[in-house]
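testing teh design pipeline on a random one, pls ignore if ur not involved
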């Protein structure tokens, strides 16, 4: 198991909410841009949101305003609050860390550390 550990996934109905969490070692979390990616069956992994050390977030265009990324410096934890979930949000969600003060986008090669993923399933 790597240094990043996700939790909070599950099975929910359309319209419901989930909050994902990702814990990281302090030495990584404190110096890294943190991000959430997701991968649905048969699709490529895509960036969902990232957040700079100073808390500035960036979201993928497909997310609209349903998701909120945040980070807790004291807990070395990254969060993704997901509201009004739809079946199209069903995927494995991954946490990633780029040891860079600034987030340089969603290119996967920039992220040195990855979690094992947490499954989100939205189904009626």
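output:
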């Amino acid at each position: 198991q790597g240094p990043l550990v996700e939790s909070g996934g599950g099975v929910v109905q359309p319209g419901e909410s989930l909050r994902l969490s990702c814990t990281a070692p302090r030495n990584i979390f404190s110096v890294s841009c943190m991000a959430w990616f997701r991968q649905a069956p048969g699709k490529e992994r895509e960036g969902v949101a990232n957040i700079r050390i100073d808390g500035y977030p960036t979201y993928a265009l497909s997310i609209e305003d349903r998701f909120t990324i945040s980070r807790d410096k004291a807990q070395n934890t990254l969060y993704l609050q997901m509201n009004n979930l739809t079946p199209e949000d069903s995927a494995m969600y991954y946490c990633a860390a780029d040891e860079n003060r600034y987030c340089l986008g969603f290119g996967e090669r920039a992220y040195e550390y990855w979690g094992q993923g947490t499954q989100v399933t939205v189904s009626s």
